[in-house]
Design brief:
Aspartate Aminotransferase, domain 2, alpha/beta, binds pyridoxal-5'-phosphate, 4-stranded mixed beta sheet, 451 residues, 7-stranded mixed beta sheet, 40% helix, Aspartate Aminotransferase, domain 1
């Protein structure tokens, strides 16, 4: 346990003067400064003044096994002492990278048996998109390049992944996006279904996909990418029949399906992988985050046997990869992390405590500014609205997000607050007592900010 004492005021000043924070209002940050976190244990983190918080966002949806795991420190230390780095370029490999690829092949459902490593989610999606195009191109179909994704989809913010991401606020001010990315509506019943029942809503979403394919031409479309449950775009849980129907349409038109399991992988939705919630089989999968529970930066892309067989066909180089593809320390930590996930069955806990937490949060449903409370496993959201009948969003000038953030932090809780609500994604080891504390803090914050 760290016993260091910190000079919080000095750290805050240094941060303001020298750090450029991602996805942050830099204007406001220069005035407020950061909340500086010094250590963590289980589902809790502590700031530099010793204040305790429930980490209700598991870092960034990724600290699945919780903080302070000495087993993972040990795995990293042992690998650093043995061989801190070797690449996977030029036919080189290390035992942890090989063992992790084999472990992922055994874990991931269906014929996804071949893995390429990256350093995170956006790199995984860049890789997945490029492999989809490569797969068609090496078969003599280089015009099959377009990528379908959904509005409110989040696939990371490197250039290719950014273009697949369907949240326009991430696009502004960064110039033209690469071409060939087309977006469908999200399966977001609360806002997009209108008066339609679930079956009719899914019919409408499928018709939209069919129309897009007819308009663009299946011969120009490489793949569709989607998160089994959309995360950063607002924890959008699709109707149960949505994915099986979409997958069937893609198959009929010979369009690959890329499952972006960067959040949903490794137990978060209450099954080991998100596709298992819906019984679908992707051709390509992107993973990251929970693969190491955030203890090391690592991502991976898995491809099916069918894609692999094509990739080894031409006598040519696969000209893609990153220096840290298959970093041995990250892979060693991932292997140990996956062992913990399996041995402690944190996936079942995510299903059980996630359902309990959803029940507790749904106590807020009658509140005049709570539009919907929804979730799957340990991915949840309390969506807030200015007018419940009209489902009107809050005027950004009211600063509802920052106010909710201050009110939750005041109550010892870290979650992701925006003008549209509070997203919650705790470590998968959360206990019911901690879920009660989390729900209580959110209820208190909503009442304080919204009355
Ligand atoms: C579904 C999904 N895909 C991709 C990414 C991008 O991952 P990274 O931030 O590691 O690049 C994220 C990040 O939150 C994500 O939620």
């Amino acid at each position: 346990m760290a016993t260091t004492t910190w000079n919080t005021a000095e750290l805050v000043q240094m941060d303001i003067e020298h750090m450029l924070h991602p996805v942050t209002n830099l204007h406001q940050h220069a005035r407020t400064g950061p909340l500086v976190l010094a250590r963590g244990s289980g589902s809790k983190v502590y700031d530099t003044d010793g204040k305790e918080y429930i980490d209700g966002f598991a870092g960034l949806w990724n600290v699945n096994v919780g903080h302070g795991r000495s087993e993972l420190a040990e795995a990293a230390r042992t690998q650093i002492e043995t061989l801190a780095f070797a690449p996977t370029f030029f036919g080189l490999a290390t035992p942890p990278a090989i063992e992790l690829a084999a472990k992922l092949a055994a874990m991931y459902p269906g014929p996804v048996n071949h893995f390429n490593f990256t350093s995170g989610g956006a790199e995984s999606n860049e890789t997945a998109i490029k492999i989809a195009r490569y797969f068609w191109s090496i078969q003599g179909r280089p015009e099959k390049v377009k990528i379908i994704s959904r509005l409110q989809g989040y696939h990371g913010i490197a250039m290719g992944a950014l273009s697949a991401t369907g949240i326009p606020s991430y696009w502004a001010h960064f110039g033209p996006r690469p071409e060939g990315f087309i977006h469908l509506s999200a399966p977001y019943a609360y806002r997009n279904a209108g008066d339609l029942d679930e079956a009719a809503f899914v019919d409408k979403l499928c018709a939209e996909l069919e129309e897009m394919i007819a308009r663009e031409g299946a011969g120009t479309i490489a793949a569709m990418i989607g998160e089994p449950v959309q995360g950063a775009g607002g924890v959008i849980v699709p109707p149960d029949s949505y994915w099986p129907r979409i997958a069937e349409i893609l198959r009929a038109h010979d369009i690959l399906l890329i499952a972006d399991e960067v959040i949903t992988g490794f137990g978060r939705t209450g099954t080991l992988f998100g596709v298992q919630q819906y019984g679908i089989q992707p051709d390509i999968v992107s993973i990251a985050k929970g693969i190491t529970s955030g203890y090391q930066p690592l991502g991976a892309v898995g491809v099916s046997d069918r894609i692999y067989q094509q990739m080894i066909e031409p006598d040519q180089m696969f000209m893609h990869g990153f220096t840290y593809s298959g970093h041995p320390v990250a892979c060693a930590v991932a292997l140990r992390n996956i062992q913990i996930i399996e041995e402690e069955d944190v996936t079942s806990n995510a299903a059980k405590v996630g359902a309990y937490l959803l029940d507790r949060l749904q106590e807020l449903s009658p509140h005049q500014n709570v539009g919907e409370v929804r979730g799957k496993g340990m991915m949840l959201i309390v969506e807030v609205v200015a007018d419940k009948g009209a489902k009107a969003k809050f005027d950004p000038a009211l600063n509802i997000g920052p106010k909710l953030q201050a009110a939750t932090r005041e109550r010892g809780l870290i979650v992701r607050c925006s003008n549209d609500g509070i997203a919650i994604a705790p470590p998968l080891i959360l206990t019911e007592d901690e879920a009660d504390r989390l729900a209580h803090a959110i209820q208190g914050a909503v009442v304080e900010v919204l009355g």
